[in-house]
Records
---
Amino acid sequence: MKSLVTGGAGFIGSHLAERLLEKGDEVIVLDNLSTGRLENVSHLQGRDDFELRLDTILDEAVVRRAVADSDRIFHLAAAVGVKFIIDNPLESIEVNVQGTENILHAANQDKKPVFLASTSEVYGKNENVPFREDDDRVLGSTTISRWSYSCTKALDEFLALAFWREKRLPVVIGRFFNTVGPRQTGRYGMVIPRFVKQALLGRDLTVHGTGEQTRAFMDVKDAVSAILALMENDDCFGQVFNVGGEKRISIKRLAETIKKKVGSDSEIKYIPYEEAYEEGFEDMIHRAPDISKINEYTGFKPENDTSAILDRVIDYFRSNEELI
Ligand SMILES: NC(=O)c1ccc[n+]([C@@H]2O[C@H](COP(=O)([O-])OP(=O)(O)OC[C@H]3O[C@@H](n4cnc5c(N)ncnc54)[C@H](O)[C@@H]3O)[C@@H](O)[C@H]2O)c1
């Protein structure tokens, strides 16, 4: 089996590429390194069963070739991270919409199976946690750029579902909730790597908002297991699945836990959202998935709890000091 991983030099994509190689697949990674890093896959380069193509999913010819050279596609390339989306609104929309369209059209030529990475952001500020796949989407105004990420990914889902319904393209959608682990960067607003770096440097841990907001975190190892389980069960095609951890923790508690685990003297400081992001920024108070659907279809349950995830991330930054 030859697998194409778009965004394979990124955080989740590089872990997925590793697991596919372990399973005996050949892997092609297509990535333009916009938020990914060469170092995430440099240990894989030089292998006969691994190929890195440094190019963009916005180039139709590049995508057609990469898809033609593969048996199945894991589409993870996207503009990601609240901060990145706010700072690069135009590029984000183009990559997430046009890029996905290119992938689906190319895959449809020979009906190659596609996994599409979506996000819990599609639920917007819906307050009824835990979210079920068929819950309503509650969004803010178009003048608040953060909602564009939610809309682009929702459009990707509509497109994928339309390709399934009209063309019978086998495509499965995974809505990731906060996924964490080694190689995730804190540069684009991801909270755990940001807190860990701040704690290791002895700087203030900057909590956005009151810190009362809660999130459920999932280890990237579990996310990869879920992706493979979904792609390897034909009953999952044409469907949407939540992929995430179930146990919520408040961001305040998260900061305190990281500070304690690192043994840091850092202070915890609270910064208004407007200051951290943009005027009028809105956040969701609570976010957690109902994962009974993926469990029912594949038996998937996350194996790593938040404490184990934090230990792994802290170890990662301690042994890669240049990334702090
Ligand atoms: N990490 C999370 O918590 C999370 C949550 C929800 C959804 N997701 C989704 O999972 C996927 C992977 O996210 P991640 O956390 O690994 O982020 P990431 O930024 O590490 O990975 C995205 C990758 O896509 C690449 N990319 C961006 N634009 C590209 C383009 N035009 N052409 C080719 N490659 C391009 C980037 O260089 C990067 O390597 C994304 O689709 C994201 O929306 C992630």
---
Amino acid sequence: MNWDPDIYMKFAGERTRPAIELLARVPLGMPSRVIDLGCGPGNSTASLAARWPNAALEGLESSPEMLAKARASALRATWVQGDVQSWAPDIQYDVVFSNAVFQWISDHRALLPQLMSHVAEGGALAFQVPRNFDSPSHALMREVANASPWAEKLAGARQRHVLSPEAYFDVLAPRSASLDIWETTYLQVLEGDDPVLAWVSGTGLRPFLQPLGEKERETFIAQYRARLREAYPRRADGKTLFPFQRLFVVAIR
Ligand SMILES: C[S@@+](CC[C@H](N)C(=O)[O-])C[C@H]1O[C@@H](n2cnc3c(N)ncnc32)[C@H](O)[C@@H]1O
């Protein structure tokens, strides 16, 4: 699935803020080896570099477009093209960090123990995932897809992979010396025309549009846009409020 780093980074501030807030809760002074899984264009990696300038820092990313953007940044990091699911390093890491990535990966009950096995003793696995699968922005995508003539084509477009906070506790508590799990709902204040559509165009909408031809895409977007305008009306001051729930986990091995 293709990613467009420029569309993604239209909301760079809102998308990077959770990475900064996750990082603030990682209680490690001077880790030697740090990796950013699903580093995207390098925005989350930049926060890691600023916090730990002396660490050996890596960014792992499956999208060539995103990785090219990261490589073009001035960041001093090792950039690796690869898949989180098959990541199997020979060495252990002090910090395995991931912001807004695992929602794209299935079977977290298998993934997380596997990732914890790559964390050094006393090190941290820290990740953030959106937990907005049932919010109107995502429910309406599925509603349009299910009611469309291409319902079959779009059947697998998006699966629910993110678990509840309690389920993450159950998976990680037996493997952690300490565990910190919390949720936040950001009341995001967006500007401009159809800003929620612009937001999801950089992320969750892509799997619904990529299987469609050009005309089909136009129809899909027109129907989805009309529903979004009702769910997220533009206020008298021109702003649109877009509440966004996210879940954070910091597990110390
Ligand atoms: C929403 S972006 C997050 C980018 C960045 N970490 C940030 O904080 O904004 C998700 C990124 O995860 C990458 N990704 C998704 N699944 C992946 C996988 N299985 N392995 C490696 N990267 C993956 C995507 O290519 C994309 O760049």
